[in-house]
């Protein structure tokens, strides 16, 4: 049975709007970490014309960029988990919803960090 209650919410408050902006920042950091990963990782010989003795392509990580890559991932993970926690702590009604993009980003970043620390990246 549906009750006639007056809706007193006026929309998202300032903190929720701030975390929308922070969510965009987290996604931007994630995309930036992918770009840094591309330049930091060893190059792959894609054709038969490249020699396998290391001439013509780099076969090692660039350490400075590797550290930036991990730093960006940890920053993205922290921002994402903080956003999930704030969303969870401020949701009080059944009609409040979970922001799926933050959960998806958290799963992706945690998986990449696990791959990194379990040394599943080659190089």
UniProtKB/TrEMBL annotation:
Keyword annotations of the record: Membrane, Transmembrane, Transmembrane helix
Keyword Membrane: yes
TM region positions: 20-40, 68-88, 100-118
Entry superkingdom: Bacteria
Stated name of the protein: Uncharacterized protein
Organism: Agarivorans albus MKT 106
């Amino acid at each position: 049975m549906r009750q006639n209650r007056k809706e007193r919410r006026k929309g998202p408050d300032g903190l929720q709007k701030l975390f929308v902006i922070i969510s965009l920042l987290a996604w931007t950091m994630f995309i930036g970490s992918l770009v840094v990963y591309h330049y930091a990782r060893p190059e792959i010989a894609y054709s038969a014309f490249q020699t396998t003795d290391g001439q013509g392509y780099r076969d090692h990580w660039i350490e400075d960029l590797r550290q930036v890559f991990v730093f960006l991932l940890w920053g993205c993970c922290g921002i994402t988990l903080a956003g999930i926690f704030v969303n969870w702590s401020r949701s009080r009604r059944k009609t409040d919803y979970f922001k799926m993009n933050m959960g998806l980003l958290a799963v992706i970043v945690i998986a990449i960090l696990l791959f990194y620390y379990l040394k599943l990246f080659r190089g």
